[in-house]
Amino acid sequence: MNIDDGRSRVIIEGVTPEIDGGRFPIKRTVGEKVVVEADIFADGHDTLSCVLLYRKDDESQWKEHPMDFLVNDRWRGEFTVTEMGQYRYTVQAWVDDFKSWRQALVKKFDAGQDVSIDLLTGAELVDEAGKRATGSDGKKLKTVALALRSDRETSNRIRIALGDELAELMARCPDKGLAAIYDRELVTVVDRPKARFSAWYEMFPRSCASVPGQHGTFKDCEGRLPYIAGMGFDVLYFPPIHPIGRTHRKGKNNNPAPGPDDPGSPWAIGSKEGGHKDVHPQLGTLEDFRQLVAKTGEHGMEIAIDLAFQCTPDHPYVNEHPEWFRWRPDRTVQYAENPPKKYEDIYPLNFESEKWQELWAELKEVVLFWIDRGVRVFRVDNPHTKPFHCWEWLIGEVKRDYPDVIFLAEAFTRPKVMYQLAKLGFTQSYTYFAWRNTKWELTQYFTELTQTEVREYFRPNLWPNTPDILTEYLQMGGRPAFMARLVLAATLGANYGIYGPAFELCESQAKELGSEEYLDSEKYEIKKWDITKPDSLRDFIARVNRIRRENPALQEDWTLRFHPIDNDQLICYSKQTEDLSNIIVIVVNLDPHHRHSGWVEFPLQTLGIDHGQAFQVHDLLSDARHLWHGNRNYVELDPQVVPAHIFRLRRRVRTERDFDYFM
Amino acid sequence: MNIDDGRSRVIIEGVTPEIDGGRFPIKRTVGEKVVVEADIFADGHDTLSCVLLYRKDDESQWKEHPMDFLVNDRWRGEFTVTEMGQYRYTVQAWVDDFKSWRQALVKKFDAGQDVSIDLLTGAELVDEAGKRATGSDGKKLKTVALALRSDRETSNRIRIALGDELAELMARCPDKGLAAIYDRELVTVVDRPKARFSAWYEMFPRSCASVPGQHGTFKDCEGRLPYIAGMGFDVLYFPPIHPIGRTHRKGKNNNPAPGPDDPGSPWAIGSKEGGHKDVHPQLGTLEDFRQLVAKTGEHGMEIAIDLAFQCTPDHPYVNEHPEWFRWRPDRTVQYAENPPKKYEDIYPLNFESEKWQELWAELKEVVLFWIDRGVRVFRVDNPHTKPFHCWEWLIGEVKRDYPDVIFLAEAFTRPKVMYQLAKLGFTQSYTYFAWRNTKWELTQYFTELTQTEVREYFRPNLWPNTPDILTEYLQMGGRPAFMARLVLAATLGANYGIYGPAFELCESQAKELGSEEYLDSEKYEIKKWDITKPDSLRDFIARVNRIRRENPALQEDWTLRFHPIDNDQLICYSKQTEDLSNIIVIVVNLDPHHRHSGWVEFPLQTLGIDHGQAFQVHDLLSDARHLWHGNRNYVELDPQVVPAHIFRLRRRVRTERDFDYFM
Asked: Is the predicted pLDDT of residue A662 greater than 60, yes or no?
């Protein structure tokens, strides 16, 4: 037990949000609230006062916000974060003798008891407060104390005792001498809004050449920007842009015997042209990249690059820092392997090296190098194969100086490992979304991500496809499957992304049955995509992204709720703003092959709609409007048309043509 | 982040049991197990080794027990506590290069790959282990390393590499250089078995006079011991035995105007005859008390006394330590009040006194005084009206030197306050049992107490009545209600107690309708109980307590499970020993007025009984035996006979008369 003063009587515990006993911070974006609750109580029946203390990390003084009593000794307070960086918060509480005294006074007076001594007790409390007061309050309190002790009529003195003026005076100089303070300072990391709401487009720049057959360049990418921005994305993510190794280079379809013109995988980083701080010469120069970053910004987007901390045998590190690699007894470097599989084109960095500190420092230098070139968003390749402590240090170091930097963790691995990476600092995280296809799976998983403690630190970023993942659902389901998965990703997740143009062109050919690898994967060759194809989903995607931008309900994840619908192929869920001014209801037909219908049950009461009242649902995808009545309403979705509704709910009043936006 | 070495790659988190981030200890009794689980993982795919570390608080060296992998990165280990006091435990884990190497070797060899370099790598690992080895292991490891490097046939060297001998050698000198250790040391308080399993009998010694009308004495109590021990109780608890105050003494039925012979409430402690370290003269002397303690022990019971830290105006403390009380402006001491109610016979101690340290020290002296007189069990009156920190300190101080002391918290207050008192050290706690009467209430409450984290620190002690609590259920239900509540208390709780002889004599007269106060409460007068009444429940209670003693399943709470039964007036639950050698199934008719029947559903599979197999249930109350078949079986209970079954399950084999005890 660690108490300075045994007279301190208040217990503060069960503080939320708090991750692992305060070991890890929670996450917020600028403008969001932190709602803090705690169990607070003392012995006996005295009245408590409780305040939430918070401050920006670089401020020395706590700000204070009163907490309100809820029920069952639970108290709640909140504060809003207004700047990027870190905030600290904790809870303070004390036995409030003045409030206790007032309550007792009322009860005794109402029971007709003599309160003359109680009034004197109150005068003593007021005197004590006077000693703590600043400014003119001291004098005012002295006057009150005199009045309480005076021979005025009791009812008169009671009025003073219970008056608002005294309450306010006393509240300004509370007796915190024996106040308890929660024994942990909790932290929230505050990111910019894009950490919470973003639409990513992954693209291989080398496939962007305007002249067929050529190696695309950063310059070529500039020409592609209007197309991508036109679809409504705001992050343009490139696989690694660094020199690609030659030794053990993989050919088309991961062929260990490449042809002479095979460009290799961008994730095989390092050649005689350089390493992680260099640009693959065929893409252009660092200056070209800097210009592309600027142009991308002009289109309302920003570039994300890939942090893939691994090397080919040709990487300069291998010669310059042999101590960063694991050496085998035969004096060769240990290549990556997952026995019996061998990845001889990849040398993993050895984080158990004696020189780990230099290695960490260099990785930080890599990040800072690209920050210097205007990059603020990093997609991190396989973070789960590098030590957790390294990430915590690296992200902490970078964000201390650049709190606007976003790190997306590409860890397709076990759940606790994914959550750990999020806890220790990753801004966003890839999820299992790609493999959650049924209503049950989607409901379970997204309830876990948005309604449990996980949401405090793990920000999902939903990808229906990636260059590594062409799911069986997409392989089998055709265009309706792509549309359904797009709507799910874009509305279940405020953060989502697609790998294009494969996605909008509904590329669905797998390398072989049972594989999730693309046939003729872009990872190993330059692709020529016909982005002008008439059946491209680009317009559909543009519409979905516009709906996301226009409807704040879709810009956060925590209000997600699933609603019953009596057909397992149909899923229904909603999101809404806190003030109910924007309510979006999504219905998706999960079966890409058949038309399905069902009855949606929707909890109107919680939205302030009377059971008997009709209301309008406006399908923002088709622009159709329907009148709905009561809790159960009919929906029908034909995947050959559009496999989803994105309804905006509007409360109907008076006549059919006379609508009032909620609230 | 606090890491000594950035190369440490293992994360340990989610350790259970752990209360409030390790702020509070868990509780066990001698002979019980502590099953520890943790989430443990590292980056990448290497194999881990994990151990549970534990030690008695006064030992400097950790003992070590291997943890087993469960699923989803969860590991489990356990240790048994064998002595009273405190144990510490934590978790250690490391990347096990040798195990990883062996796994890879097997896979490569099975895939027909060349493993010659791998064997050399293994030899290096063995060499390193040799440097850490003690005794003859070093030499043995050197021999193995030589063999692995030799030109013997590969299959031969593989056999050595994968052999048990090498595995055992390596396990004895693991490379813990980069091991992670969980950053908290967790504590378990270990009590004697009575903390877990006890039957309490509360009795006013002053009502035990053998001569009617006289004030009972400790000597008289000696004569009552065979009666109480005969019912099978093992704790005999006395309300305060100290001198009773005169000022504002309460008369019969709490009358503020007492008669001259009214004895007053034992909880009004302190008179000119003394205070908390004195004995009420009419009960006898300290020497009489010491003798009673000894005699009680001879009957297999022990005395519990009441710690009621409050004073009458006549208590010696008031003059000797005026600074321990709160003084009002009129220079009178503040009496207890809960406005508008006044308790002028009670002066609460002021724990906000400047002299709080002396006050705490004196309270500790009081406890030690009675410990010196042979008392090891204390029932603490209203602990929730004294500061939490004081209890934590006091209990910690006492149990450091006397780990066998049991403190029972009588806190009938809000749930979080009750749980807090348990967390900070109370051995057992009163519960809401008295007011949980319906199947739903009992199921909810006892599931919370026995199947959630609460069970780690809160040990329920179930009382169907107390001198303050004559529930409406008992008032209305007559003898069947007393029988039902006794069976519920004695089987839902391994710890339970009754206030007698009021209980066994089915005393059910309340002071008035809507009150839970006894009419002519023993708190304010000496009662003459006719314990020989033929309809006394003494034999029934004796039988229930014997069943408890003979069936270890009833001596702990954690295995409690409720089972469906298709009648809301019938409740069914079971307890069992870990090895299934003792399985007890209880059915209680909660309606004291009507016969009820229903079909019990019992999960036979989990008890190793085939669905088609008949089995015997032996009612230990009535001694009747029934053959049951399958999951659903019929029960019928007439409250006018016995409102409960306490079945022991026995697996039936071969013939009806040929039974085999489980396992």
From this structure: no
Residues of B in contact with A123 (CB under 8 A): 329
Number of H helices, E strands in chain A: 14, 31
Whether A122 has a pLDDT exceeding 90, the answer reads yes
Q: How far apart are CA A105 and CA A120, in angstroms?
A: 11
DSSP structure string for A521-576: -TTTS-----TT-TT-SHHHHHHHHHHHHH-GGGG-STT-EEE-BS-TTEEEEEEE
Structure tokens at B531: 């314990």
Nearest to B107 among A329, A339, A390 (CB): A339
Q: Classify residue B511 by its DSSP letter.
A: S
Kindly determine whether residue B73 and residue A417, on different chains, have CB atoms separated by under 8 Å: yes
Q: Give the number of other Cβ atoms within 10 Å of residue A119's Cβ.
A: 23
Report in angstroms the alpha-carbon separations of A577 from A82, A192, A559.
19, 19, 8
Reduced DSSP (H G I as helix, E B as strand, rest coil) percent helix, strand, coil of chain B, to 5: 35, 25, 40
Q: How far is B448 from chain A (nearest CA, A)?
A: 16
R_g over Cα of chain B: 31
Question: Which of A410, A504, A522, A591 is labelled catalytic?
Answer: A410
b (16+ CB within 10 A) / e for B354-384:
eebeebbebbbebbeebbebbbbbbbbbbbb
The pLDDT score that the predictor gives to residue B661 is: 52
Annotation says A410 is catalytic: yes
Between CA B619 and CA B625 the distance in angstroms is: 6
Low-confidence ranges of chain B (pLDDT < 50): 1-2, 656, 659, 662-663
Q: How far apart are CA B56 and CA B89, in angstroms?
A: 9
Quick one: tokens of B316? 């010696």
Enumerate the β-bridge partners of residue A495: A198
B410 is catalytic: yes
What ipTM, to 2 d.p.? Answer: 0.95
What burial letters (b/e) apply to B465-479, b meaning 16+ CB within 10 Å?
Answer: bbbbbbbbbbbebeb
| Test mutation, B43, B124, B399, chain A, max A CBs within 10 A | B43
- Strand pairing category for A85-95 and A186-191: antiparallel
